[in-house]
Amino acid sequence: MRDSRFARFLALLFAVVLGAAIVTGCGSTKDDSEGSGSSGGAAASDDGASANANAQIKKGLKVVVMPKQLGNPYEELEDKGTVAAIEETGGTAKIQGPTDASASSQVSLLRSITQQKPDAIVLAANDPNAIAPVLKQAMQRGVKVVTQDSDAAADARQIFINQATTQSIGEQLAKQAKEVGGEGEVAVLSATANAPNQNAWIKIMKEELKKPEYSGIKLVKVAYGDDDDQKSFQQAQGLLRAYPNLKAIVSPTTVGIAAAARYVSANAQYKGKVGITGLGTPNQMRKFVKDGTVEQFALWNPEDVGYLGGYAAAALASGQITGKEGETFKAGKLGDKTIGANGEIVLGPPTTFTKENIDDFDF
Ligand code: RAM
Predict the structure, then answer these.
(1) Where are the domains of the chain?
(2) Pocket around ligand 1 at a 6 A CB cut-off
(3) Equal CATH topology for 51-163+302-347 and 166-299
């Protein structure tokens, strides 16, 4: 009798705990169909704490910098910028990242980093939701969290450094599709299926393509190369085989566009006939612009994105700012910066690269 009441009590307790876990959305890795992840509510500014704009930047800050994955030339440039900014402020920065662009690898790394309790973590997120619980834990322990390049859920970080507005990047991708491919079928070659930044841009691009000026364009497929060079190369090949009338591949990832350009450049049946465009680094794309495979692509300066992220982390960890809209801080050579809505700071518009200007850039 006693035992059965105890068993019922245990069953009830189990149900309550399970229910709470479901409500808090434990381990959700669903696609970020809502956009950059910054749309889901206010940024996690330090409620209660007030910013002291006159506070000095603390010396000796310890900051962990986490890319989407190690070995991606774009992410390396970005992290170089973050390390430079932290060192300028008299702190030390350590780069720690996964070897693949998956959220689960970031989560396990973030767990152990949180135990070490650095002053701040500056990261590019591989999934807006899956890494949110561990980032919230870090913030509860007093670690400041800045996302850059690719955002986490807005309540799981204090500040997001966005390279350009999500809207402007999405619009640019649609425009590129038309300028490079003309009328007809286009495909997107993206990074991972959960990548917060690419998903947000593609969402805007799809909305743009509904406009009358794009009525001649049909988006036939969004493929994912996982920001892995070989997989992206194979996906480009697969797209061209599956859609023989394809006019353009738009790749909003530096890994994808370089792999697609390499494939097309080596195949006479496609070279000069299928346009390759999107977001790339000038140094990786130069040879494909010169050999006529690529007419135009775009990007911002990745090092500046990272540099701004580093200064934002130092200002947060020093109490100069808390992440609230309207707060300002000094970002070294980039000058004064103001935090916008949802804790977002936008760096500036992207540059379009063509054969006319590509040699003016070296990154
Ligand atoms: C890849 C990454 C990065 C993105 C660039 C454009 O390097 O996916 O997050 O911003 O492309």
Answers:
(1) 51-163+302-347, 166-299
(2) 68, 72, 74-75, 124, 149-150, 191, 197, 227, 253-255, 279
(3) yes
| Residue in the structure block whose two tokens are 């949110």 | 132
Q: Calculate the dihedral angle through the C-alpha atoms of 236, 223, 249, 226, rounding to the nearest 10 degrees.
A: -70
Is residue 190 within 8 Å of 253, Cβ to Cβ? yes
Which pLDDT tens digit goes with each residue over 228-268? 999 999 999 999 999 999 999 999 999 999 999 999 999 99
Strand 184-190 to 275-278 pairing:
unpaired
Ligand 1 atom at shortest distance from the alpha carbon of 299: 6
CATH for the stretch 51-163+302-347: 3.40.50.2300
- The answer to whether residues 270 and 248 touch, using CB atoms and an 8 Å cutoff, is no
Could you identify the atom of ligand 1 that is nearest to the CA of residue 191?
Answer: 8
Nearest CA residue ID for atom 2, ligand 1: 253
Query: 5-19, 47-61, 144-158, 254-268: which has the minimum mean pLDDT?
Result: 5-19
Q: pLDDT tens for residues 269-288?
A: 999 999 999 999 999 999 99
Distance CA 76, CA 83 (A): 10
Distance CA 136, CA 41 (A): 14
Atom of ligand 1 minimally distant from the CA of 68: 9
Q: Cα angle vertex 109, ends 105, 112, to 5°?
A: 150
Atom of ligand 1 nearest to the CA of 252: 6
Which pLDDT score is estimated for 149? Answer: 98
Residue from 253, 299, 353 whose mutation best tests the ligand 1 pocket (most atoms within 8 A of CB): 253
Architecture of the domain spanning 166-299: 3-Layer(aba) Sandwich (3.40)
Question: How far is the centre of ligand 1, averaged over its atoms, from the C-alpha of 253 (Å)?
Answer: 5
Q: At what angle do helices 302-317 and 73-88 cross, to 10 degrees?
A: 40
Q: How far is the CA of 316 from the centre of ligand 1 (A)?
A: 25
Contact yes or no for 148/308 (Cβ under 8 A):
yes
Cα 34 to averaged position of ligand 1 atoms, centre (Å): 19
* Distance from the alpha carbon of residue 200 to the mean position of ligand 1, in angstroms: 12
For residue 136 the two structure tokens come to 């919230």
